[in-house]
Amino acid sequence: MVDVHKLSRDAFDRLQAEYDDLTTRGRIEIAQKIETARELGDLSENGDYHAAKEEQGKMEGRIAHLSALIENAEIVEVDLSADMTVQAGCVVSIRYAGDDDVEKYLLGSIEERRDGLTVMSPGSPLGQALIGTSIDDTVTFEAPNGPLDVTVVDIEA
């Protein structure tokens, strides 16, 4: 079964632009680096050639990853106007039981990352426990060292 990747429109557009750039400009540049390195002679001891081939491999891996994300993407729009519950794509502030600090997380794919926010997967134990909760709800989730309680402090789009 194929995993559906829930992405915001911004994240989808950003990933599509990166994919387009890597499959055009990126591939051309890496081919030029490899060609330049080949002209230097013996490939078995050519550090530039091996570095360019390694870079090409990493880039092709990223292209394959982006392709799978884009192909299996579902664009989600966070709408908190009618339903103030935690859902994929929202920013949720939580407080662990016995702690005064409030932590903010973006609930979504790592590709949704934003400056200053830690990303939490909706499929993680805490992410699963938070989905569908409202402000002031307390949930328990299974952490590696045993169950933990968290309270939802705020929800933002």
Walk me through the structure.
This protein is of the alpha/beta class and 157 residues long. It folds into two domains: 5-75, Helix Hairpins (Orthogonal Bundle), CATH 1.10.287.180; 91-156, Transcription elongation factor, GreA/GreB, C-terminal domain (Chitinase A, domain 3, Roll). The chain has three helices and seven strands. Strand 6 (138-143) and strand 7 form a beta hairpin. Helix 1 packs antiparallel against helix 2 (47-71). The two termini are 30 Å apart. The model has no long low-confidence stretch (mean pLDDT 88).
As laid out across the biggest beta sheet, the strand order is 5-4-3-7-6
Q: What is the approximate shape?
A: elongated
Number of strands: 7
Can you tell me the residue ranges where pLDDT is under 50 for at least 5 consecutive residues?
none
Number of helix segments?
Answer: 3
Cα gyration radius (Å): 21 Å
Write a concise synopsis of the structure shown:
It contains 3 helices and 7 strands; from the N terminus they run βααββββαββ. The protein has 157 residues and is an alpha/beta fold.
Provide the fold topology.
Elements: E1 5-7, H1 9-38, H2 47-71, E2 73-75, E3 91-96, E4 102-107, E5 118-120, H3 125-130, E6 138-143, E7 146-156
Parallel strand pairs: 1-2, 4-5
Antiparallel strand pairs: 3-4, 3-7, 6-7
Helix pairs in contact: 1-2
Fill in the keyword field for this structure.
5-stranded mixed beta sheet; 2 domains; Chitinase A, domain 3; 3 helices; two-stranded parallel sheet; 157 residues; Helix Hairpins; alpha/beta; elongated
